[in-house]
Amino acid sequence: MKAIRILPLIAFVLIKFLLQIFLISPEYDLQRDEYLHLDQAHHPAWGYLSVPPVTSWISYLIMLLGNAVIWVKFFPALFGALTIVVVWKTIEELDGTIWAQILGATCILLSSLLRLNTLYQPNSLDVLCWTALYFAIIKYISTEKSKWLYFGSIVFAIGFLNKYNIAFLVIGLLPAILLTEHRNILTRKEFYLALALALLLILPNLIWQYQNHFPVIYHMKELAGRHLVHVERSGFLKTQLLFFTGSWFVIIAGLAALLMVKKFRPYRLFFWSFFFTLTVFVYFKAKPYYAIGLYPLYIAFGSAAMTNALNVRWQKIALPILVFMPVLFFIPMWKYAFPNKGPVEIAKDAEQYRRLGLLRWEDGKDHAIPQDYADMLGWKELAKKVDEAYIRIGDPQKTLVLCDNYGQAGAINYYTTKGIRAVSTEAIIYTGLILTRLTRISFA
Fold first, then answer.
1. Cα 276 to chain center, whole Å?
2. Best CA proximity match to 94, nearest among 290, 279, 297, 236
3. Tell me: the pLDDT tens digits for 314-339?
């Protein structure tokens, strides 16, 4: 029986990796933010202006592996594949059939996660940590074994040290716990021991934040003033519908089952936490993709609920249709939601991209191609030109290559063949130490 269940899962994981390879046109370089994260491997710290340290640890591993693009793309694809595995195991915990697992895996595979997992950013691991933390809570509810609380605290710590976004999960979950019988967890010693473990694991980053005057607050103010100001609350909610377009019938089924099906009553706190978490995101005018990690859990609930509600006769008819639905909706996604077409080809179909809102950038205006795609062009050429200029300088060893932004600096450092270490004053913490170093290099 286990072999029957494991073989389809292996197939989904392999398909996941294969799809990630074919989703990016060779016309594109790495994306702007990817260069920032890769360059952090050269600057180890317990925190950075825009992100916590976990991505820099992975970048260091990528550097040890040779810094090849295949490794840059491997890790987000791996986190996406592991998200499928966790959803698979969640459905199993909910007594879902093999068809339920296939349905859930299909919904996760053919979704916006394919786009998210093409980029080496903290977001792929963030979604995995959300899904794994929800899984730990489900396991604790079903078994009442304290080891799952400790597992959950470790997952939270990894998620927090990867991207502070996981705090929204906790903010949405706490009032849901208070509304249900699970509030008694607040009286248990192991709950506070798990909290202490999580605090201990994230403490180095909190100390770093304190020592650097909480740059996360500065970064959030920057986001609010420059980017989030263009986010409309109604637009946030509309965009949520696009992330799992072919799977909303499963998500709705999961929410309905949590509210009405007796078997899922022990997990009803997740019904309330769904709406609490979305409300918090809307209130803070968060970027729409911040909420992607919320949905895999409800796909697991919906898949288990829908297949359990069908008798054997109807399963043979309905389940193949249910599995085909995400495939059907994925076809237009394949055409427009991924960088598998070059800029010229996109320009020929610009009106359709505009109607879908894909040409709207963070400045609130429409541009020729999607913002992420524009941020994947010209970096190799830039690095080549800098290399050519660098070797013509009389004394290159005493020359500072100072860039306007971290994308330029990171790309030059990634592609240079002349050993250049370009710098930028963007995305650094303005401490006296760093300013002194820049001054000394500048006047050398």
1. 20
2. 297
3. 666 777 888 899 999 898 888 888 89
